[in-house]
Amino acid sequence: MNFTLKEIADIVGGRIVGDETLRVSGIADIHSATDRDITFSVNRAYFRKALDSLASGILCSEDYGFEAKKTLILVSNPRISFARILNLFHENKNVSTGIHPNCIMGENVTLGKNISIYPNVFIGSNVKIGDRTLIYPGVYIGNNVFIGEDCIIYPNVVILDKIEIGNGVIIHGGAVVGSDGFGFELEDGHYYKIPQMGSVVIEDDVEIGANVCIDRATIGNTHIGKGTKLDNLIQIAHNVSLGENIVIAGLSGLSGSVTVGDNTVIAGQVGIADGVRVGSNSVLTAKAGIISDIPADSKVAGFPAEDARGFFRKIVYLSRISDLSSEIKAIRKELKELRNKLNL
User: Fold this and answer.
1) How far apart are CA 331 and CA 13, in angstroms?
2) CATH code for 98-308?
3) How far is Cα 213 from Cα 54, in angstroms, rounded to an integer?
4) What is the model's pTM?
5) Model confidence over 214-273: pLDDT tens digits?
6) Residue 113: C-alpha distances to residues 116, 147, 167 (Å)
7) Residues known to be catalytic
8) Domain boundaries, the chain
9) pLDDT per position as a tens digit, 164-206
10) Which top CATH class is 3-89?
């Protein structure tokens, strides 16, 4: 599979500077690129190195629109264009293979067209799976589950009873959807388990990383909004409600009944306490501890979380404590000497 640089530029909506007839068969970083590759640049320092690479062309920002010794494809957003070119050269392995005979299915299972179900998949009763969905080996799907079209369910995923999954959802290996919420009540020295009777609803175009746990609601739904992306090793507790286009990095944990607004970014190892509401368009920086509501359009850091600018200002001050202590000692010494001279 190969393309001219002009064909690639047309796909990403870019502008060519140089020889548009050059053909390439792959995309590579500046260190491994050959004359059969296109490479990319996301900043000026990297661009200078890309000019010295073996690549036939460079994908870069339209700000670099000048004559160069290599052919350039100038775009407004190199990162998005880079992703689209990767898809162009990516071999599609999600080819329909049909239903493997070692798949176990319950009663009243409805399967769409061009589905692939690999060996050792278990599918319960009253399940509906949409067109072109791919289910890898070792997946468990409980009763009364709905899975939409064009989904990819990777090996060893567990989807328990009464779960609803939209179209274009990707769930990576080891994830568990619909496990019981962590609900217990202490009575007479013993913890009484609160039945978890609700469900999980996952909207379209969500991606769920490896070993993510999404608990079902006590009653009602745990909800994951359209376009939300979850990294590996994340805990989503019962009755959490995530809006649309949220990004959550690995090792974060959201306690029960947390609500997060649209377009929020949650960095790694963030913890959010029960029932907290996080407004839309917010940024929670790494290791932040969120114990109270966060207004929309906020950027917070630290534990307990506070405005990020104030938090990092304190960090700067703390880093200067040793120097300040030395300065104070020197000032005290000078004052003492001055008092002695003045006989005070």
Assistant:
1) 64
2) 2.160.10.10
3) 44
4) 0.90
5) 999 999 999 999 999 999 999 999 999 999 999 999 999 999 999 999 999 999 999 999
6) 9, 13, 14
7) 238
8) 3-89, 98-308, 311-341
9) 999 999 999 999 999 999 999 999 999 999 999 999 999 999 9
10) alpha beta
